[in-house]
Amino acid sequence: MKKGKIISFEGPDGAGKSTVLETLMPVLQQKYDGHVIMTREPGGVAIAEKIRHVILDVNHTSMDSKTELLLYAAARRQHLVEKILPELEKGNLVLIDRFIDSSVAYQGYGRGIAVSDVDWLNHYATDGIKPDLTLLFDVPSETGLARIQTNNEREVNRLDLEKLDMHQRVRQGYLSLASQEPKRIKIIDASQSLETVIKDTQTILETFLELS
Ligand code: TYD
């Protein structure tokens, strides 16, 4: 039985979600007496981190889209079983930097794989578990890509190197997901200053956590 909660952080590359997550983590830890964990996809556990290396290697330019989708799903399954489910079982709050919606946005809308296939595979990998809340950090693709290029600390991965039109399809994919599931997916305007984005995120998180 699932007792804890999942909150996923989603958005196009360069939206700043990881920075916001890292900034808010200590605040949430204090508020929830340490019952909060932060993790990421692809990765989060050793086997899934190895799969991450294979997927994101900039030399793997010949990777087929379906291979890519299956690898994300494989990493997700291992992460779920080894880390997410045990944390939920303990009643903890699990914050994930990317989850099922990334596969729909990137492999579905971005790569052009049928969204119904991605949905099915996500369901297979997670046994139907979905986040209780998803924060979508939305930013115009040009702004996101410019941020990636000027951020020297961030390692550039294979998906970052995709052309502007792929990034635009990913963004549109996220926005249509948010319009289909407005109760679960909350949009944050990530083109604002980092300070404002952090404040907006905190407000949504606090409202959600007080109500639940
Ligand atoms: P990462 O360096 O973690 O990027 P970010 O900081 O933007 O989250 O790399 C993850 C990349 O993998 C990112 O470009 C999005 C992509 N991705 C997918 O295409 N499908 C997925 O299912 C997931 C989880 C990530």
Low-confidence stretches: none
- Could you say how many structural domains there are in total? 1
Strand-residue fraction? Answer: 5-15%
Number of helices: 8
CATH homology-level superfamily? P-loop containing nucleotide triphosphate hydrolases
For the record, what CATH class applies? Alpha Beta
Gross morphology: globular
Distance between the first and last residues' Cα = 17 Å
Mean pLDDT: 95
| Rounded Rg | 16 Å
Structural class: alpha/beta
Strand order of the largest sheet: 2-3-1-4-5
SSE pattern: EHEHHEHHEHHEH
Quick one: biggest sheet?
Answer: 5 strands, parallel
Family: Belongs to the thymidylate kinase family.
Function: Phosphorylation of dTMP to form dTDP in both de novo and salvage pathways of dTTP synthesis.
Protein name: Thymidylate kinase
Binding site for ATP: 11-18
Labels describing this entry:
alpha/beta, 212 residues, binds thymidine-5'-diphosphate, Rossmann fold
Describe the structure.
The chain is of the alpha/beta class and 212 residues long. Helix content is 56%, strand content 13%. The protein has one domain (5-208): P-loop containing nucleotide triphosphate hydrolases (Rossmann fold). It is built from 8 helices and 5 strands. Strands 2-3-1-4-5 form a 5-stranded parallel β-sheet, with helices on both faces. The longest helix has 25 residues, at 65-89. The relative contact order is 0.20. The mean pLDDT is 95. The structure holds thymidine-5'-diphosphate. Residues 13, 18, 41-42, 56, 72, 97-98, 102-103, 106-107, 157, 159 line the site of thymidine-5'-diphosphate. It catalyses: dTMP + ATP = dTDP + ADP. Residues 9-198 form the Thymidylate kinase-like domain. It comes from Streptococcus pacificus.
